[in-house]
Amino acid sequence: MLSFTQVLEFTGTFAFAISGIRLASAKQFDWFGAFVVGLVVAIGGGTLRNVLLDVTTFWMADPIYFICTALALFWVILFGNYLIHLNNTFFIFDSLGLALFTVVGITKTLDLGYPFWVAIIMGSMTGSAGGVIRDILINEIPLIFRKEIYAMACVIGGVIYWILHYTGVDSTWVNLISGGSILLTRILAVRFQIGLPVLKGENF
Predict the structure, then answer these.
(1) Residues 6+ away with beta carbon under 8 Å from 136
(2) Contact 15, 90 (CB under 8 A)
(3) pLDDT value at position 87?
(4) Over the chain, what is the mean pLDDT?
(5) Measured between alpha carbons, how far is residue 175 from residues 22, 60, 96, 133 in Å?
């Protein structure tokens, strides 16, 4: 039986793969190229996290991540015409993947015995690093480097995770609330165009 963390991880994999494949289709990639982009965004952040934590890379032990990405590809192929008419498709799946993977990254880091500040960094990396690689592959400026709040949403969710964990809240609720806070932060930031100040060269 799957654990709650595994459910989050597989759901996040599918959501992130959809977001990557959706962008790849907009760039007119072929099926293989779209699969690669979807896979990279789905496993990139977690791979970097595991390398830094000196843990065996998860996708080498379980093919489910490739299966999830393949299912995401077929889903986009089947319903691609419908998705094109949904302007918020990329945003929805990318934000969902960001929230789920950040929670998974924090949980896995804590399970290894690392302190919370490391867990928040690793959670943010798990959530956002795959998107950076994706954007580089499709020749876009990564979202994490733009004015739009992205990685900071992971940090906010990580702090909320720490507060809830410290106060003894049940782990399921910790995951749901902290993940929901990341999703809500992204929605509010985009809806009301909230962002961090831009560093301008003329200031120097």
Answers:
(1) 142
(2) no
(3) 59
(4) 89
(5) 27, 25, 13, 26
Q: How would residue 190 be classed by pLDDT, with cut points 50, 70 and 90?
A: confident
Q: What angle do CA 52, 57, 62 make, to 5 degrees?
A: 160
Find where tokens 């959706």 sit. Answer: 22
> Would you say residue 21 has pLDDT above 60?
yes
Contact 136, 123 (CB under 8 A): no
Q: Which of helix, strand or coil describes residue 148?
A: strand
The neighbour count for residue 87, using CB atoms within 10 Å, is 7
For residues 141-170, one letter each, b for 16 or more C-beta atoms within 10 angstroms of the residue's C-beta and e for the rest, the string is ebbbeeebbbbbbbbbbbebbbebbeeeee
pTM, entire model: 0.88
Q: What is the largest CA-CA distance in the chain?
A: 57
SS3 assignment for 56-118: CCHHHCCCHHHHHHHHHHHHHHHHHHHHHCCCCHHHHHHHHHHHHHHHHHHHHHHHCCCCHHH
C-beta atoms surrounding 10 within 10 Å: 18
